[in-house]
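Researcher: Here's the sequence for the chain we discussed earlier.
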Amino acid sequence: MAIDSTEKLELHWKLSDWEQLDTTELYEILSLRNQVFVVEQNCVYNDTDGKDPLSLHLCGYADQKLICYARILPPGLSYSEPSIGRVVCDFGFRKKGIGRALMLQAIKHSGQLWPQEKIKISAQSYLIDFYKSMGFNVLGNEYLEDGIPHTAMIL
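Model: Thanks. This is the structure I predict for it:
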């Protein structure tokens, strides 16, 4: 994947269920989520919400370093539809198309697993246009989730 005219970054994807994650992978995932959602966004919340063991974990690696991650949740876990959450990209790799690549991978995997299902997300509201550009539509009014404005969206 070309990042800009001076830099190229090759992403490698790994989709794992809970049992397939080793302790190093789990540590990297939780560390990245903590760095962005708790430290960077200054949001104290319970990241380990009990849904990880029932979800799939999509990891994006560059040079064997975890740089992006998303959690794919089956229907009935958060919503009646499948969902994608905990979408996160390492600060040093933002604004390079990696978040879009991550979401497109997550949408693809969700569609393969649950082909007739819509996908529902709880998007941080400042990212509505980003998700709209991938086909998501706003579903209802903005609400606060852990003190951050969110909007439900559906694809």
